[in-house]
Amino acid sequence: MPLFGALVFLDEGCASVFSYACNLTLLYCIVKNWKPRLRSLNVILVQNVALDLILGLFPITSGMWMAFVNGRVYVMQTGLVRFVNYNIACLVYCAYCGVLCLCVLAFPMQFFFRYKTLCKKDDVSKYLHAALWTVLMILAGTIFTGFYLAYSFHANLTEFDLPASKVIGEYVTFDENTAFVVTESKSFWFPATFGFILITFIISCFIVLYYANKISKFIYENAAMTENFKHLYLMLHKTLMLQAALFFVAGVIPVITMSVYSVLQVQNAPCIFAIASSAFAWVSVINPCVSIYLIRPYRRFLRSKPVSASMLTTKTVTTAMTGASSCIQ
């Protein structure tokens, strides 16, 4: 049965690799299409790519396996961090939680910037940009601190809790050096941290919906826009909406589930959160693919590359055959 845990870790590792491949491809498209009409979207997408690249590091680095066992919450660190001190490994997990929340909380700011630049024709000052990012970093740091206070850091689960090690050992392989964090599901800091995350996520969701509705109305009702420009702005707007929706689903569903489990004081759930984590690891892969597919200039740019390469190959072969024929004659 530990094969199941190995497959989950392999799935998350593949997600990390594909995340880097897709995000670097998107970054290449952004650089090659850095035009005035795409500038505001490109700036937002560069931020998203940076967050996705950071987020993509954690599945293969941490290799988290979360389980409720006998009223305690365990998170095993089975990834590459097993080769470092267990305190560092557990801090990596807390950092992952902070970064994931930062990715979700960044979308309200991006929709606000989009609203100001598109609907109000205002430039976003560097000071406002820096101030809002500072607020987001403080929120992410608060969440990191909450998890740091909620969990205690350990290694050698067998020695710490033999019954729990037998349950978790049915799903994932670990040894005496494998780091893990643990907390009581009814402790103060654990539900308090998830409650804080849930409140910030709900507020963020309402902010996104508010500005998304404003932007959509502006695009549809603006008579000064040509059909081409309306199509372009709607295309960019849909891209941001889909990215936001994916991250909210990836962030809100686990948080709500964890909050419900904590309130109901569920005693055992050995694998459901690990399976969910394995699925949500692919969000950072889907996001760049959605952007490339929906944004026509990016899609055309990538399609033109194989065609160009094919034409170059054909031209080279034709030239070589012509040269050979001339030599024979």
From TrEMBL:
Belongs to the nematode receptor-like protein srd family. It comes from Panagrellus redivivus (Microworm). It holds the Pfam family 7TM_GPCR_Srd. It is found in: Membrane. Keywords: Membrane, Transmembrane, Transmembrane helix. It comes from the Eukaryota. GO terms for cellular component: membrane. This is G-protein coupled receptors family 1 profile domain-containing protein. The chain crosses the membrane at residues 6-31, 43-66, 86-107, 127-151, 188-212, 240-260, 272-295. The keyword Transmembrane helix applies. It is a multi-pass membrane protein.
